[in-house]
């Protein structure tokens, strides 16, 4: 075990990151990737000058990642990424909150009790959601993630390597074709907005009749394209998903392609503002032997800090899943 506590590890990596930021005139998140790679490989890639190399050696000499518990490593990495994202001007530089990622993990384990399963996050960012779900998974797995932003992808790779998780990453626009066989489970914190490439959008049923298409609609369709019949999809969706001008088109598509398994509205105090509140949306891709639940799981989650209320809700959710397993085929048992 390392003699350093989590705050000390954070401070030392933060100091090293700021040194890289200063010496190389790189943004914090890019500098953090350089530091994480140094921790992994204990050597320079040849691009750092001698002064910086000395600073890295001094700042990081007491950190031995092989002796740090994986939970500590994950928490420190998340805190450092969050710090970098606060200063980022890019809207997509957001991290799925840990409490929400853990709740999604709980739902995944309700859907899949035996492995191996294939898991895919088509918009993985720094892979916080993906690594959290994999860490909590009760079954063996193969995992895949895709991210178009090179900074986030580099952090995702380092994040997975630090946690010694085997994940295959794609660096590409997730609305273009993948060299990927269908998976059992897709998880995604859907980015919201318009998709700028109208030519690619033309390949989708959920393309807009006029103007740009919604990227979050196209990503739902693309995710279904890479899900096995009977497989599951768990999305974090914006509040307004079914109130937009293209909601009717989305509803028709989902009715044809998938069963709506559940919608769980997350509490407002899990987000910075009311405008950012999201819901968890669970789908099952239709197959020959699948059928819709008698009644979808519809839940308004209480504050995640209210342990008594959460305990009561979890009892109800557990009961719902027991009935769902009895009445459904295709669930991952």
Would you mind describing this structure in some detail?
There is one protein chain. With 333 residues, this protein is of the alpha/beta class. The protein folds into 2 domains: 6-86, DNA polymerase, domain 1; 98-327, 3-Layer(aba) Sandwich (Rossmann fold). 43% of the residues lie in helices and 17% in strands. It has 11 helices and 10 strands. Strands 3-2-1-4-7-9-8-10 form an 8-stranded mixed β-sheet, sandwiched between helices. A two-stranded antiparallel sheet has the order 5-6. Helix 6 links the parallel strand 1 and strand 2 (141-146). Helix 1 packs across helix 2, helix 1 runs antiparallel to helix 3 (50-60) and helix 5 packs across helix 6. The longest helix is centred in the last third of the chain and has 21 residues, at 307-327. The model has no long low-confidence stretch (mean pLDDT 89).
Secondary structure topology:
Layout: H1 6-24, H2 28-41, H3 50-60, H4 70-86, H5 98-111, E1 117-121, H6 128-136, E2 141-146, H7 150-162, E3 167-170, E4 183-189, E5 194-195, H8 198-201, E6 213-214, H9 215-225, E7 227-238, H10 247-257, E8 258-265, E9 278-285, E10 297-300, H11 307-327
Parallel strand pairs: 1-2, 1-4, 2-3, 4-7, 8-10
Antiparallel strand pairs: 5-6, 7-9, 8-9
Helix pairs in contact: 1-2, 1-3, 1-4, 2-7, 5-6
């Amino acid at each position: 075990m390392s003699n350093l506590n989590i705050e000390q590890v954070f401070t030392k990596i933060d100091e090293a990151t700021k040194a890289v930021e200063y010496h190389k005139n790189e943004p914090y998140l890019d500098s953090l990737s350089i530091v994480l790679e140094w921790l992994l490989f204990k050597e320079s890639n040849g691009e750092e000058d001698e002064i910086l190399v000395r600073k890295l050696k001094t700042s990081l000499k007491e950190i031995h990642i092989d002796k740090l518990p994986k939970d500590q490593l994950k928490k420190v990495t998340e805190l450092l990424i969050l710090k970098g994202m606060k200063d980022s001007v890019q809207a997509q530089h957001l991290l799925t909150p840990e409490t929400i990622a853990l709740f999604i993990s709980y739902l995944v384990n309700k859907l899949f009790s035996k492995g191996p399963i294939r898991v895919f996050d088509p918009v993985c960012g720094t892979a916080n959601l993906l690594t959290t779900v994999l860490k909590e998974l009760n079954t063996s797995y193969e995992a895949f993630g895709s991210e178009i932003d090179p900074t986030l992808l580099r952090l995702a790779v380092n994040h997975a390597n630090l946690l010694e998780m085997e994940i295959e990453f794609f660096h590409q626009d997730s609305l273009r074709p993948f060299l990927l066989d269908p998976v059992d489970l897709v998880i995604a914190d859907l980015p919201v907005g318009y998709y700028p490439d109208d030519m690619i959008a033309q390949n989708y049923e959920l393309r807009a009749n006029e103007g740009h298409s919604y990227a979050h609609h196209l990503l739902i369709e693309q995710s279904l394209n890479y899900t096995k019949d009977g497989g599951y999809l768990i999305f974090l969706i914006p509040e307004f998903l079914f109130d937009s001008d293209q909601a009717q088109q989305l509803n028709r598509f989902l009715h044809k392609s998938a069963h709506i398994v559940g919608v769980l509205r997350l509490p407002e105090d899990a987000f910075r503002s009311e405008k950012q509140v999201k819901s968890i949306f669970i789908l099952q891709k239709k197959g020959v032997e699948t059928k819709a639940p008698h009644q979808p799981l519809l839940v308004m989650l209480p504050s995640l800090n209210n342990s008594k209320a959460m305990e009561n809700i979890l009892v109800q959710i557990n009961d719902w899943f027991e009935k769902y397993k009895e009445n459904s085929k295709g669930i991952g048992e």
